[in-house]
Amino acid sequence: xxxxxxxxxxxxxxxxxxxxMMTILKAWDFLSEKQLQNVNFRQRKESLVQxxxxxxxxxxxxxxxxxxxxxxxxxxxxxxxVWDVFQMSKGPGEDIDLFDMEQFKSSFKxxxxxxxxxxxxxFRDAEENAVWIRIAWGTQYRxxxxxxxxxVVYYSQTPYAFTSSCPLRSNIPLLGQALTVASNHHKIVKxxxxxxxxxxxxxxxxxxxxxxxETYNSTTPLQEKSLELDIHMDSRIIxxxxxxxxxxxxxxQETFGDYSQPRLEFAQYKLExxxxxxxxxxxxxxxxxxxxxxxxxxxxHLLEALKSLAPAGIADAPLSPLLTxxxxxxxxxxxxxxx
Amino acid sequence: MSVLRPLDKQPGLNTATIxxxxxxxxxxxxxxxxxxxxxxxSELKIHLARSLPLPSDVNRPRIDLIMFVVNLHSKYSLQxxxxxLRHVDAxxxxxxxxxxAMGAGQESHCSIHRNTVxxxxxxxxxxxxxxxxxxEGFRATVAQRLVRMxxxxxxxxxxxxxxxxxxxxxxxxxxxxxxx
Amino acid sequence: MDSYESTHQHIASxxxxxxxIGATPLQKRLESVRKQxxxxxxxxxxxxxxxxxxxxxxxxxxxAFLLHKQWTLYSLTPLYKFSYTNxxxxxxxxxxxxxxxxxxxLAVEVGEDFNIKVTFSTLLGMKxxxxxxxxxxxxxxxxxxxxxxxxxxxxxxxxxxxxxxxDSLLETVSEDFTCxxxxxxxxxxxxxxxxxxxxxxxxxCYFSPLAINAFNLSWMAAMxxxxxxxxxxxxxxxxxxxxxxPQSLDISYAIHPEDAKALWDSVHKTPGEVTQEEVDLFMDCxxxxxxxxxxxxxxxxxxxRVSTSVASAHTDGKIKVSLNKSSYVxxxxxxxxxxxxxxxxxxxxxxQWNANLRQ
Lengths: 339, 180, 359
Hints:
Shape of chain C: elongated
Strand content of chain B: 15-25%
Largest sheet of chain C: 11 strands, antiparallel
Order of helices and strands of chain B: EHEEHEHEHH
Helix content of chain C: 40-55%
Structural class of chain C: alpha+beta
Oligomer: heterotrimer
Helix content of chain B: 25-40%
Largest sheet of chain B: 5 strands, parallel
Distance between the termini of chain B: 34 Å
Distance between the termini of chain C: 44 Å
Number of strands of chain C: 15
Radius of gyration of chain C: 24 Å
Mean pLDDT of chain B: 87
């Protein structure tokens, strides 16, 4: 094993938190159970890493094995990346053909290698017919850089691919081309949808988010009842706006559903709309140009936060379609103009 | 959707009814709970509303006192109160209206100047109390005060009337509007 | 005997009179607090200062140095027996104090060569009126280890003290005290703490962090938006924190600076001054534009930060002037500094007023 590979191993293992070391190494499935048993996991991390690198060296591990370990690590820490979504489509009259994963992989790899010569592509099959792809970019003259890879998750036979943000913008068209050709599609577009939560992005584009409701359905009626009870707890307290409150609850439920929302952390709106005043007709009345605004919403769990606004009295019910359409349209980046 | 009038109904037997108006639902509820814990000879009724006018198709007892709750951290709550005030008959302001301004303790969160509410209360010739509804101890103090005021406004305290109380409060705590 | 009694009575009664009219500083102070409780303390309007004072006698290089840094604000009680003629002495005392703090337990001789240096200097012209005391600057510099290196000093920490339009505060301070109610620090917090301790020990004063509430943030936003600039460097941005649970939500609302200026001009009617009504209307316009699109009431949320091409301020008491050198030459930068620090001073007055009320 040459020095650069050893270094790559070392850096990859160093990234792994001690508490997850065993789980990740097992998932990697390169070192045998027995070999792992002989490693002292209670020593300092630096020494442990040294032991593991030695062990890999003994087993003649290659740079590809290291790349696979990096994929496993990334699968465990997928929330640390911001994921983009690409949507592909077939040309008119193109039929659904048989999909062969092996063929996808080889043609994907071939396209990238033909263009860049120095590029390293690794694949790891994942659950639900998905494949995780790791691309270490290089150029005609430069070896692949293992430390700025791009990860792509592709669900076979679907028109969607998820990619971690690409440090080399110039490589995006090539990546798109490789994806379309390998998956027998015709066109590819980057969607205005981005999140750290890969599973939520998947739920949004595959419209799976309302299917989780079965697990939540059983608990919601209970919560509702307790809310009702709360209101009528003491007959000496009378809620005058009960009907309005119930309407807000109902409308919110209709808009967002019973299920827990897919997780997004931001939404962005570029507004170019004319200012209209509620109070005073002459404010900016003569101005023809729109007001240029950029609105960014950010939250650890945006859709849940939005869902709570109307019941908290901070927003009207129903909330603006600009906000509620996010999961439906599969968008969280918008440009809004006057009609 | 009508204007609220103070004496358009017969009072209920030994009943004193307060109406709390404000956008902070949860805190109003807690304040109401705290009021009910107070020891009081009158039978209390507490109506909670986000805003006025009240729904008109409901039969409700005579309202003896209206408290408007402004959250100094939220301009929206002030605007809501200002809007609601238009649906109150002028005779209510003869001692049967009060203002609670909450959140003054957390100065760094304030988006409304204290003075704005002081002016509002003076405009309506009604008493203003600064309070902190988020802490239980303070809430209990406010609750106690409100219960006492309510009893007076409902006529359950011999010898003091709502207007009496108003004039007392004005001379001791708030400067007369002419001074401003 | 008679005459004795009468004098005695006379003294007593004059003392009593003093007591009532508030002759001593403390009483004056209480008196002014009382006055304020019955009068509206908010200036319903603020004059846009014509920046004569500052431009005339300030040292442009020093002021330039104060721009472009992020400052953490503190309010400060008046300094007892502070003298502008002793700045050199204070510098060596503070430097010894810092040295001692840094190697606690070891005795350090005053003036001993240590690898830091402290300087005190006045900031001429950084004041609102003639009555305001002069602002002064304190810096901690590192002495380079190598004598060959031109003795270049690297600035480790900077703090400055000022009073801009502190009229009503000055009124209540007796002559033994110097009133520089606003303290701004840039650098490691440990250094701020050490300097704070020294000032506290030496001048019997007290520092407290100065938060800027949403009310004052909107004033700053409005006034900065009002500044006409040849070239805008950044958007006018507001950051709101939405009080919703269990998930928190932040909303950033950035407006193209030219459009923000156009909106302000449309709202602004009184030349030469800015009124509370205008600030309110400006903010209400922003709220209503937002509500029209998203159906969210921003007025029910909390403004935590404003930033413009001119400056930015955060509710936790951090401010930064972002004018660059070329723009401050053409632009009366003092105008901004005035307004910002003026608001801070006003805020301190208010806070004192509130604190007195609570007592």
